[in-house]
């Protein structure tokens, strides 16, 4: 479903943010 895809994309952005934050 589109909602699930949106959540996965959001999760990837959060992971990217965590990596950039270090």
- Sketch the major β-sheet: none
β-sheet strand percentage:
under 5%
Give the overall form.
rod-shaped
Average pLDDT over all residues: 92
Output the structural class. Answer: mainly alpha
| N→C terminal distance | 33 Å
Low-pLDDT runs of 5+ residues are none
Q: Give the oligomer, counting copies of the same chain as homo and different chains as hetero.
A: single chain
Organism: Homo sapiens
Protein name: Factor VIII
Characterise the protein shown here.
It is a single chain. The chain is an all-alpha fold and 22 residues long. It is built from one helix and no strands. The longest helix is centred in the middle third of the chain and has 20 residues, at 2-21. The mean pLDDT is 92.
What are the salient characteristics of this protein?
Factor VIII, 22 residues, 0% strand, mainly alpha, 1 helix
């Amino acid at each position: 479903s589109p909602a699930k895809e949106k959540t996965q994309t959001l999760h990837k952005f959060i992971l990217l943010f965590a990596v950039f934050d270090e």
